[in-house]
Amino acid sequence: MVGAGGSQYGRQQVSRSATIRDVARAAGVSTAAVSRVLNPGSGAVSSSTRERVLAAVEDLSYRPRTAARELRGGARPTLALVLADVTNPFFAQLADRVVWEARSHDVTVQLMTTREDPTLEAESLTALLQRRIGSVIATPTGGNVERWEDLREAGTSVVFVDRRIEGFTAATVSTADEESGHAAAQHLLRLGHQRIGVIAGPSTTSTGRDRVTGHARALTEHGLTPDPSLVHQVPFRGDQGADAVSALLDTEDPPTALVVANTAQVVSSMRRLALRGVRTGQDLSVVVFDDNPWTELHTPALTVVRQPIGLVARHAVTLALRQDARDQVRVRADLVPRASTGLAPAAS
Amino acid sequence: MVGAGGSQYGRQQVSRSATIRDVARAAGVSTAAVSRVLNPGSGAVSSSTRERVLAAVEDLSYRPRTAARELRGGARPTLALVLADVTNPFFAQLADRVVWEARSHDVTVQLMTTREDPTLEAESLTALLQRRIGSVIATPTGGNVERWEDLREAGTSVVFVDRRIEGFTAATVSTADEESGHAAAQHLLRLGHQRIGVIAGPSTTSTGRDRVTGHARALTEHGLTPDPSLVHQVPFRGDQGADAVSALLDTEDPPTALVVANTAQVVSSMRRLALRGVRTGQDLSVVVFDDNPWTELHTPALTVVRQPIGLVARHAVTLALRQDARDQVRVRADLVPRASTGLAPAAS
DNA sequence: TTGTACGCGTTATCAT
DNA sequence: ATGATAACGCGTACAA
Q1: 0.90 exceeded by pTM
Q2: Which nucleotides of strand D lie under 7 Å from a protein CB?
């Protein structure tokens, strides 16, 4: 049994850690020699001194101070990931892939979350500004335009993923949202659905707008007139997706199909459908944005629009680390048909 | 010539960012004055100079170099979160709360992932060692004992969450896994189930072991003899949860209930059940470890063991930032009964 | 109240 | 091949 507490582990922990001078002294050489041993390519060292130095390093368990190094040379590249909500499987996957990509560049990732709250976002940006972060990958809330500009002016390269915002043109990696909205609607139209409800993100966000636009285009191409009353644009946080579902179901001429284009509202919306006893796939066909393992497990399995998250992450990291760009990268999403979408009931 | 040389040629955009000396010169004061203005409490400044300094700071958009600051004073506290898999909703929630708690301490979080791979973990730890990280919160894979020790010896405070590992005693915040396993089994026993299948994590992990132990204890207390053939301990990654499900179903005397105590294998296991046409809640009662919004959406809604993730995160961050501790904190988990568990079929 | 000057730990330059 | 030393940018005794 080991007792808790354990302060008997010596004061050596507390003593100042060894500096390059300590090592030099212990090895009987100069600090320059030590530096040369530790930074290969900076000069030649005899194997005898190399050995003594390495021994001293090992002995004193010496680690160069990052701060001193950065002060002398340039600062190491740093990357922050400012996400709306890590709890959302879509963003969790994004985080996973971004960390993975960054790792291959030998860069670590600082994770921050905004919870879709511009105030929290502002605080995060201030922190980043102070810490002189090199690059930021973010899913912006929509506000803080000046703050973003400050950040860029301070020399940080800013990359937005998934969304764009108004008033600030950053490098962006986004899904072809217009096409995605179009694809989802088209899929349903081909199944014979005429009235399609839509739950999308707020119209202040690019994802919110574009997916709705694509949806409308598909309808128009199909000879239908988009009905604004079928489109509900609701915030990312909260339960308004569910309320929108109820509103749609409670109309006189309820839709036979539903597109939930707001990632964050999928669960809430589906829950409400279940609560209302709607038989998904029969009474109502449903397409949902963003794939995750649970969508296939759902009864019935959900037809989803799957975004190529790995690709998004790779582009984002590349753009972020290459300091100079203001590029716009778009990736295509795929519609994955599953059991939640079926033929429309015969028209009455 | 008056003034600094060659500033006429538009090189200012490219030129190194302003230092405290530049500000001092621009404001017509000393560097000390600038520092005093920027670090309140370090000395008194006349309001007139303060103004001029602030103006100059604004004008040159001056930001103190973190490296220089840290070199002079102590290093800022730093925190790394080394997770097995951010994609797992349980860990995603953990990440969310850890970031949140850290924020309240004005500390940012470096996110790293191991994908349950000791090799990747080793690389991460090496990186952390080099960067002299202050604190680490981790879900260890089980290996790399020496590496963890190196890290601690380097002065990093290490906190394990969710799991403990053998050979290295770190501060740990874990769920009462033994009790949780006990609770899940007890719930099923009270519903009349006698043969209960278990899918747990590997026996090399504390969560894997303890939940199984608790399960066995419940059985024994109930007058039953634990049947080892009903317990499958499978890795966190891969699809072996599904295989274990099949194995359990294919025995001569298949269980009437199932506990999936391996968070990472829940989806895979449930998918296999669906594939096999098992009617969850009727043919087979199912308890699953770790709650997330989708479990309630499942048909039928899944009975879950819910861990108090927020509490775990809070404790973890507190322990991590308080450098001295080797404490063990345990939190209780709750069983949330839902529709996936029902009365056992009458014994034949 | 203000300014001068030193040191933090490293690396690079220049002698030797 | 090796050693002395000057920066790097900041904070702060200490002196004025």
Answers
A1: yes
A2: 1-5, 7-14
